[in-house]
């Protein structure tokens, strides 16, 4: 019995047009799931959809701004119309706004909270009822190691990012407790530094930060593409049927020293 087999499952991935979300969508398909890919940029989604379809799985690109209720409702309706059900929801969409409480504008604060926190609430609002009816669901929320750790370099301080990712942990636990009896597990992942669109032109270009990260990280390197997929598949599969409300940090040991 392969606990990680996703044959017959339908997965929805937000933020699937790039980075960790696109990697997870590919990993779901490789385990046998059909996948709906949500993000704002249709052209970028189409490229990942094509790749997945070439492997023989079904994939659907659905334009969606997770911070807008009308957009989320329409996207979930489109997925249910095409696939009939949703078994797995990976809430990956996120933005990493820099700045301290002194420098952030109110709009920057609100936008980060809207995408990183409200986006997960809205996706769950429309996906959870179907999961409860079918008595099955796997919800995986992408938080960050920065939900539990402050940024160590002054130049890279991200107060609203810290706040929004910590809020994701609260939401994860609250939903996990409410829906465990419905066969739904809700868990969160805390990536450390991974190469992606979010980081390749920011943190990866900041030599002092990279040197600091590598020297403080027991693995002495950032996460490589695909290295989040194992924990994503664990929380998305039957392997975690009795594991809920948990947070796994995936950071090469960065947060343990
Ligand atoms: N890369 C890292 O080092 C790292 C570390 C910790 C946590 N994370 C988290 O991982 C997740 C993925 O980030 P990534 O590194 O792959 O970056 P990324 O920028 O490549 O991916 C973010 C995705 O979210 C989408 N998105 C942003 N706003 C959206 C909105 N309003 N509606 C729908 N989609 C939206 C983007 O289009 C993109 O597809 C984020 O939640 C991020 O905070 C990343």
Secondary structure elements and their pairing?
Blueprint: E1 10-14, H1 19-30, E2 34-39, H2 42-53, E3 59-63, H3 69-83, E4 88-91, H4 106-134, E5 137-142, H5 159-179, E6 184-191, H6 197-200, H7 207-216, H8 229-236, E7 247-250
Parallel strand pairs: 1-2, 1-4, 2-3, 4-5, 5-6, 6-7
This protein binds nicotinamide-adenine-dinucleotide.
Pfam families: adh_short
Protein name: Gluconate 5-dehydrogenase
Keywords: Oxidoreductase
Structural summary, described in words:
- Keywords: Oxidoreductase.
- It comes from Caproicibacter fermentans.
- GO terms for molecular function: oxidoreductase activity, acting on the CH-OH group of donors, NAD or NADP as acceptor; quinone binding.
- There is one protein chain.
- With about 260 residues, the chain is an alpha/beta fold.
- The protein has one domain (about 10-195, about 225-250): Rossmann fold.
- Helices cover about 45% and strands about 15% of the residues.
- It is built from eight helices and seven strands.
- Strands 3-2-1-4-5-6-7 form a seven-stranded parallel β-sheet, sandwiched between helices.
- Helix 1 runs parallel beside helix 2.
- The mean pLDDT is about 95.
- Nicotinamide-adenine-dinucleotide binds near residues 64, 198 and 199.
Helical amount: 40-55%
The CATH topology: Rossmann fold
pLDDT < 50 stretches: none
Could you tell me the radius of gyration in angstroms?
Answer: 17 Å
**Principal-axis shape:** globular
Question: How many structural domains does the protein architecture include?
Answer: 1
Mean pLDDT: 96
Helical segment tally? 8
CATH architecture: 3-Layer(aba) Sandwich
Order of helices and strands: EHEHEHEHEHEHHHE
């Amino acid at each position: 019995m392969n606990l990680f087999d996703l044959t017959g499952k339908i997965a929805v991935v937000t933020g699937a047009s790039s980075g960790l979300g696109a990697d997870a969508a590919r990993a779901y398909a490789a385990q046998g799931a059909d996948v709906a890919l949500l993000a704002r940029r249709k052209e970028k989604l189409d490229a990942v959809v094509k790749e997945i379809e070439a492997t023989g799985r079904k994939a659907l690109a659905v334009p969606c701004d997770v911070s807008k209720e009308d957009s989320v409702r329409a996207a979930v309706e489109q997925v249910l119309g095409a696939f009939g059900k949703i078994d797995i929801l990976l809430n990956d969409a996120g933005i990493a706004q820099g700045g301290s409480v002194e420098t952030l504008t109110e709009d920057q604060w609100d936008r980060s909270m809207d995408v990183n926190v409200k986006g997960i609430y809205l996706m769950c609002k429309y996906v959870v009822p179907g999961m409860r009816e079918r008595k099955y669901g796997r919800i995986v929320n992408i938080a960050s190691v920065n939900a539990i750790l402050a940024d160590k370099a002054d130049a890279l301080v991200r107060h609203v990012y810290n706040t929004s990712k910590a809020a994701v942990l609260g939401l994860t636990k609250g939903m996990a407790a409410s829906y465990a009896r419905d066969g739904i597990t809700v868990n969160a992942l805390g990536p450390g530094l991974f190469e992606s669109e979010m980081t390749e032109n920011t943190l990866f270009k900041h030599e002092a930060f990279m040197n600091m990260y590598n020297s403080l990280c027991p693995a002495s390197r950032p996460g490589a593409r695909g290295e989040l997929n194992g924990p994503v598949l664990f929380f998305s599969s039957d392997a975690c049927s009795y594991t809920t409300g948990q947070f796994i940090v995936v950071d090469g040991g960065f947060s343990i020293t």
